[in-house]
Amino acid sequence: MDMLRITGLHKRFGNHEVLKGLDLSVPEHSVFGFVGKNGSGKTTTMKTILGLIKADDGEITVAGEKVVYGQTATNHHIGYLPDVPEFYDFMKPREYLVFCGEITGMEKEDIEKRADELLRLVGLDKEERRIKGFSRGMKQRLGIAQALFARPKLLICDEPTSALDPMGRKEILDILYSVRNETTVLFSTHVLSDVERICTDVAFIDNGVISIHGKLEDLKANFNSNEYLVETLNESDTFVLLEQFGGVQIAPTRLVFKEGKTEIFDIMNFIAENKIPVVKIERFEKTLESMFMEVITK
Amino acid sequence: MRALISFTKKEFKSQIRSAKFNILIGLFIFFGILNPLFAKLIPFLFETLEDAMAQAGMNMPITPASDLDSWAQFYGNFSLYMIIFIIMQGNIFTKEYGNNTLVLVLTKGLDRWKVLCSKAFMLCALWTFYYLIYFLATYAATEYFFNTSIAQNVVVSAVYLWIGGLWICALAIFFSTLAKSIGTVIAGTLIPYILMSIFSVIPSIDKYLPTSLMSGANLIYGITSPSDYLIALGITVVTAAALITASVPMFNKKQI
Ligand SMILES: Nc1ncnc2c1ncn2[C@@H]1O[C@H](COP(=O)(O)OP(=O)(O)OP(=O)(O)O)[C@@H](O)[C@H]1O
Ligand SMILES: [Mg+2]
Q1: Are residues A39 and A182 in the same domain?
Q2: Same domain for A243 and A172?
Q3: pTM, to two decimals
Q4: Are residues A138 and A13 in the same domain?
Q5: How far is Cα B24 from Cα B67, in angstroms, rounded to an integer?
Q6: How distant, in Å, are the alpha carbons of A19, A32, B193 from that of A214?
Q7: Range of A137's domain?
Q8: What are φ and ψ of residue A244, in 5° steps?
Q9: Interface mutation vs chain A, best among B108, B111, B252, most A CBs within 10 Å
Q10: Contact B6/A103, CB-based, under 8 Å?
Q11: What is the ipTM of this complex?
Q12: Within an 8 Å CB–CB cutoff, is residue A82 touching chain B?
């Protein structure tokens, strides 16, 4: 079953059309990476899922229930960590979590238990200051704790690692990964190594629509044909190789061959037999990064 | 219901943990004590001016000050204090819009109408609280400075004034669901109030206006009786209820 399904989502701000018919489905118990460059509409999409922004067109369902702008019913299924979480800063972290439990209608003992559990998980259990004095990283941690508090079916995090140091980043990613059995995680990021580290699924948003969408393994299998770069000394030799083996000429003396399509050893044999002077032969590993670059520069 | 109580408790905490809360308590005690003091002071001022006025050929009989004058001050200064209250506390909604603190609350599934109810209740409670302080301070200080008790309908007219204040709170709530900034809320609240105060000089209109509830001076002098204000009272209650009711769909549509 899909925990979240978006169909044909449109949104414009003034005459700037941000979302142009976005479709997205997030399977249950996936850790879903939502990737796109700055200003591509990730935050806008997430806020629309939460009923905070009114869509111009399209439909969103969360756990099978339709999202209605301004109504909060579907939000009972969701835990949300905004890009810049803001709390009541006159409260202490534990007090804030208890408040969260109360407004979501949890039982008293459960609230106490959960508060201890989550404060320990995010490393704020010894913090006695009011939230007023918190750094951004600490707010991000408290943000994760409040988002997970009511055991949501769907956890939505908007760039959860952006304010964190490398250690904190790893910790947060580990937390997101560890909760995948209890919940479905959707998080936005532009750090592709984060996606590779923990995601089961990924979607790239570009120009208002989803351009690539699927299981990370499948995508890697499809896209991850590695490449070889062959650079010759003379331009004429490059031309001979191109005639013989195809490939893509990216510079006067440089050719790129996709692994699998052309057997590199054939090329090497040919070079040896014809005594072609080469500058270098190099193998490129295709990463999510290059895949993404390919998509957005297309 | 527990969510509603919890959110209201949070509103309450945010008030009592702020410096503003104590400052306003101090201010309203001070304002209250000021009323009989002014009433005492004015005859003195006239006395010092008496010789000069007599030389100019003016003869003014000076009546000794009484509790009546103190209560007249109470009503006379009220609008200024109401404005101070709205400026200080009118941000009960807008500060959360500015801070984005409502985002986490609403995305947890708390109904918007509960947020509206809590905040509306809190504003009215704050108003009632400060007004009670203002009233009691005036009452105690008047008892202390004057041993007369000429003023009539003291309690009834104070209750009318309180209801008038609640009506202004209803205006503030309505405009808070409409506007994003505190400036708009203050303007939206005070402009109708000031306009009505101006129109209330026309006697035929006056008795329909909520502002007539706030002109308690006539009541304490015994010029009017409490039953003369029933129409205004009815209109005040109905318009306040209408404002609050209209706030609900406005708040639901609001972009947070
Ligand atoms: N309230 C708004 N009014 C006008 N334009 C807006 C508004 N919110 C977002 N936009 C525009 O919509 C586009 C998408 O913004 P959004 O915040 O969704 O991007 P994003 O993918 O989250 O970017 P980032 O990676 O920087 O967080 C941007 O061009 C932004 O200027
Ligand atoms: Mg964003």
Answers
A1: yes
A2: no
A3: 0.84
A4: yes
A5: 25
A6: 19, 9, 60
A7: 2-214
A8: -75, -45
A9: B108
A10: yes
A11: 0.87
A12: yes
